[in-house]
Amino acid sequence: MAELTYRDAVAAGIAQEMERDQNVVFLGEDVAHAGGVFKATVGLIERFGPLRVRDCPISEQAIIGAAMGAAMTGLRPIAEIMFSDFFAVCWDMIANEIAKARYMTNGQMAMPLVIRTANGGGSRFGAQHSQSVENWAMMIPGLKVVAPAFPADVKGLLAAAVRDPDPVIFFEQKSLYSLKGEVPDGEYVDELGKAKVLRHGKDCTIVALAAMVHRALEAAEVLEREHGISCTVVDVRSLVPLDTQTILSEVAKTGRLVTVEENPRLCGWGAEIASIVADECFWELDGPIIRITTPHVPLPSADLLEDHTMPSAERIVRELRAKLD
Amino acid sequence: MPQLGETVAEGVVTRWYKQVGDKVAADEMLFDVETDKVSTEIPAPVSGVLTEILVPEGATAKVGVRLAVISEGKGEAGSIKPAAAAPAAAASTVSAERAAVSAARGVDSVEGVRLSPAVRRLFAEHQLTPVDVRGSGRDGRITRDDVIAFVAARGVSVPRATTAPVGDVRQKLNAVRKRTADHMLQTWRNVPHVIQAVEVDYHRIEQARREHKLTYLPFIAYATAIALQRFPLLNASFEGEDLVVHGRVNIGIAVDLNFEGLLVPVVKDVPGKPLLQLAREMNDLAQRARARQLKPDEVKQGTYTLSNSGVYGTLFTGALINEPQVAILSTDSVRKKPVVIEGPDGDSIAVRPVGVLAQSFDHRAIDGAYSGAFLRELKTILETNDWTQALTA
To answer: Cβ distance B182 to B212 under 8 Å?
Structure first.
């Protein structure tokens, strides 16, 4: 085990896979010589050279188009979209081509590529550089969607994403890049579609993703210590495939589901989980499902407003105290 | 804690109807007590203000222990209310809401109580109603944990949340089950049982009972009481070496509690009761037994017992005697059968409702001839009495 930051874990994951498989290539804006604007890919150009680690122009369509072509012709590219907001610029290729190639060619063509992106708010980047858009990707059949909360998961899930035969959208929460954590040494591969239970409680089951996992854990600590409310916290880690087994069984144990979502409320990923739980776990529910989300607004850039808009540990505590019994 | 029967040493206070500070009137329901065999409401002995509750809900107390204090001073109820200033007004709104919720959960009406899916499912699995379980949630809501705790306290295991139990499940016996087990084992060891049965043609009863929508059981109880008066040694109890022959005929009716135990409420002084009144009393006792609302006196002083398995279509049941009584009668199913009728013009075959009555008797008390003669008498009464007239009495 070594203590790495979330950003170091990105580079470690990419390096591990590039080392293992010559077909793995990496491309994006400022990812090579600058080491990434979030410094998440430092050292890769030095280690693997300009043929396999490529700086691209500021054109999301060029990046995704190149990655798609590379994947179609036998490579396993990792493409970076610097801010997930700009998926909107290249969404046709992702949603209509990459996601559907295997299906429309009856399996003759695969798209073994990973699109990494810095997602989410909390860094004062304003409405166009702070969105939490994991739900955009979740709703497209043919895409896998991963969003790690811890450095170890970054490395392990990124490795699993690269090895997956189909397209995986890999959401890194940009406010977590400086988060430190223990990461296994040597080759480390995790499994897509496995949620993790981080804390066991008896009063409710909080299901969270990425940065919200940390806020849920903080809230659970306060609720237990100061208010005698004990919460299970589940880190979903992967929206597609979704570990419904873990989610349903953890909800069944406490009888209450709480989702903590950074995406805006309408059609957030938690709505889908709420729907699955209502469908398959209805008779275990001991009270209404609670969704705690960013409201349906563009994320403000002012510090206080951004903090107020995204779900905070304080807000989770407040809402659960008001709504649980 | 009142003495609720000579063999009962303690009871659990399951519900307080009043809170500290409430006014109570003498004979107004004050609390519920549950013992091994019964759950009963205890009225306030005096009027006054409930100033202290010493034994909270769910706690067990020995007989004679002080449970609460009622102050008889008149001004006290008044003096509490005026003290309530503005902040307390909010509190009283809350308690009013709770009272409304509690009222809605009263025996007569459970409409309007909001139950979560999990609670509904547990209620269905354990045959409970909102009346049974006290809510600890917001505004008195019954939570899943309330039900699980209630069932656990009752001693029946709760199925795990999502998965059906696989393999063996070890269960603790609940209080009623344990008590029944001890009693049955003692009876089985101590009493030499003999079983005798007669087949009874119920055709005379059939018409009478249909008009009044009655079951066969009150007719059988009515006839049994008459026959017992003619065969008093069966209306008796063993006390040590002695047989005590009872003057009163008090018939116990075994009532199944949804497969979770057995209660035997007793209809007192059956001879002389008009048949319809007897039917009503039996029905009332059975219903209250299932709702676990029998009063302690209502399960005592039985002198003979009826056990009815007929609803399940049984042909014949060899019942265990309800010790220290000396006999028990099992009434099994009545079904239509071809019966040979002997008449002055020879034999003919008729379709008649027929069922078996089986008596288990204690051979220490009587012999087979006595029991057989009793059964013949009982059969004759059931087959020949003018039941339509008995119903108009």
So the answer is: no
